Amino acid sequence: MGVWQSYRLRVRRRYRLARAIRKRRELRSIVNRTGQIKRNDLLLFSTQRNEQIRLPFFLEYYRDKGVDHFLIVDNDSDDGSLEYLSEQPDVSVWHTRNSYKKSRFGVDWLNWLQLRYAHNHWCLVVDPDEFFIYPFCDTRPIKALTDWLDASSIKSFSAMLLDMYPRGPITEQPYREGQDPLDIACWFDAGNYTMSKNSAYGNLWIQGGPRSRVFFPDTPELAPALNKIPLVKWNRRYAYVSSTHMLLPRGLNQVYDEWGGEKASGLLLHAKFLDTFTAKAEEELLRNQHYSASVEYKAYAERLRDNPELWCKWSEKYINWRQLEILGLMSKGNWA
């Protein structure tokens, strides 16, 4: 990378941090328990809106995996989720009525919270419908992974988004509050993924899965990106640029091996497609707070009105992380 490009990225990173500091004024602290955070605590950051039905299992899942403290931005919920989060002893929560779109889809808000509270902590950034899995996740907590990453001088860890869905119409099986969504959405696409390298940021750009196959069959280039870097040993100089797809400094995006080997990687099991999703898609389409004039949610709403089914004869049923390693969707690298 040339000197000029390096300079431009440095200016861009400083701009993102300055923007996050400015956007902090949009956040109102509801309950701030960050004084409980200890030196080696694992932190989780998230934004949410009207996810009350998902939150009990979401918090239970990540507590079980070793998360010590949750820092959550509530974007003007009216379903009781703000009140629920406020009552949780390991959650700090902020509220905002400001535009999700104008905060770069929540990135500005979380960049500020990480700048303020996450320096020198391992941090996981996920949505309430994303469930992080990694090598040996059935027997080892996330801190076993971060200990190994520290010992290996690795500061960021990738996890491709893997869309999960039920067999049959997604409207047929009602999801209950507190239920593991993967009990219902337990199928996925094992193939049809494409990958390219972003020349500016150095990250991989991955597309495919059921959202490409079902919602963007004629324009797969418009399908949502699936590449994520959700786990980072944070430093106050860092900033996410676009969701968790890429970061600055640029070196944090080098989470893959270009010389024929395999770096350890994980997955985010994405349990978006439950019976609650049809109404959610219609609501988000009306709110128009998502990327590219909500083109993604337009495709969801139009397709689901006619046939709310993502399953096909090539779908695979999820068993465990080893199955996904065999399929080449994640890797344990040299972590034994």
Automatic annotation (TrEMBL):
MF term (GO), any: transferase activity
Pfam family, one: Glyco_tranf_2_4
Keywords, ordered alphabetically: Transferase
Name of the protein: Glycosyl transferase family 2
Species: Shimia isoporae
Lineage: Bacteria, Pseudomonadati, Pseudomonadota, Alphaproteobacteria, Rhodobacterales
